[in-house]
Specification:
It is a single chain. With 269 residues, the protein is α+β, with helices and mostly antiparallel strands. The chain folds into 2 domains: 2-95 and 219-252, no CATH class; 99-211, no CATH class. The chain contains 6 helices and 10 strands, in the order ααααββββββββββαα. The strands form 2 sheets. The chain has a 5-stranded antiparallel beta sheet, with no helix packed on it. A 5-stranded antiparallel beta sheet has the order 4-5-2-7-10, with no helix packed on it. A hairpin with a 4-residue loop joins strand 4 (144-146) and strand 5. The longest helix has 26 residues, at 40-65. The radius of gyration is 27 Å and the shape is elongated. The relative contact order is 0.16.
Length: 269
């Protein structure tokens, strides 16, 4: 078998290390796997680290425990791990290429005749996967009051705007805080704009404005997204392969079958 040779084992370990580095790096850097590729030094360090860990766990510990099993059983375990990991990631992280977007939110200073003011409260910007865009990624222009969890444009101030440029998968959701002193906001999204009246006679309510992702990914973006998804699948499959008790179940099944066979032989002797 190929994995009995040390060079082949190192090649497999480096590949697994890269896949793990891509997945874990995305979490540590709070970015997509595609953006993680741009952090070359960090990705290289994580790849070396996880390659060594993969080699030690897979061939120094787990593989020796699987020595009693046949190559077919080991292959079945690999396939089982890949299927479980692939199905889990399809639910958690669908294969959707990330797209570049430009957003501008402008507090116009205008208001509904029923409103007592023209305040614009922005509570959060959320991607379709539930992650929020941090305030550090926003370019604030004009007299905005920056709070701990919100941005406020007060009435009587000149037009103020907030800009964001970045990549995201799917739609973007803006959550405004609306009440009886809310005004009218102008939203520009990828060259299109809409005016939204935020007046509400209630005391405080959240109002969500969904910005649709109308971009069409290119073939290269789709292929890259599939490749990154496969890398994440392999990294998760490695954890399933190492941590799941599938090999113990197989061993117990073989022991039980052997015991039944011995019992049958005794009965016929």
């Amino acid at each position: 078998m190929l994995l009995q040779h040390r060079p082949c084992r190192w090649v497999a370990s480096v590949f697994l290390g890269f896949c793990l580095a891509l997945g874990v790096g995305s979490l540590l850097l709070d970015s997509t796997p595609r953006a993680t590729l741009e952090h070359g030094a960090s990705l290289l360090f994580l790849t070396i680290l996880f390659s060594l860990i993969s080699y030690g766990l897979l061939f120094g510990f787990t593989w020796s425990h699987l020595a009693v099993l046949s190559g077919e059983v080991k292959l079945a375990g690999v396939v089982f791990s890949l299927v479980i990991a692939g199905l889990a990631l399809l639910v958690i992280s669908p294969i959707v290429p990330s797209s570049a977007h430009e957003l501008e939110i402008e507090a116009t200073g205008q208001r509904n005749p029923l409103s007592s003011g023209s305040e614009i409260w922005i509570w959060k910007l959320t991607r379709s996967n539930g992650s929020s865009i941090p305030a550090s990624d926003l370019v604030v222009e004009g007299p905005w009051s920056v709070g701990q969890d919100s941005l406020l444009a007060k009435p009587g101030t000149p037009p103020a705007s907030i800009k964001w440029t970045g990549r995201t998968r799917g739609n973007l959701i803006i959550t405004f805080g609306v009440n009886h002193v809310s005004g009218i906001v102008l939203i520009r999204w990828d060259g299109q704009q809409q005016s939204v009246d935020l007046y509400n006679d209630a005391e405080w309510l959240p109002k969500e404005v969904v910005l649709r992702d109308l971009s069409s990914p290119s073939v290269s973006q789709i292929l890259l997204a599939i490749g990154l998804h496969l890398a994440e699948t392999v990294s998760l499959a490695l954890l399933v392969f190492l941590l799941s008790p599938w090999h113990k179940i197989v061993s117990l099944g073989k022991d039980q079958s052997l015991a039944e066979l011995k019992s049958s032989v005794r009965e016929h002797s």
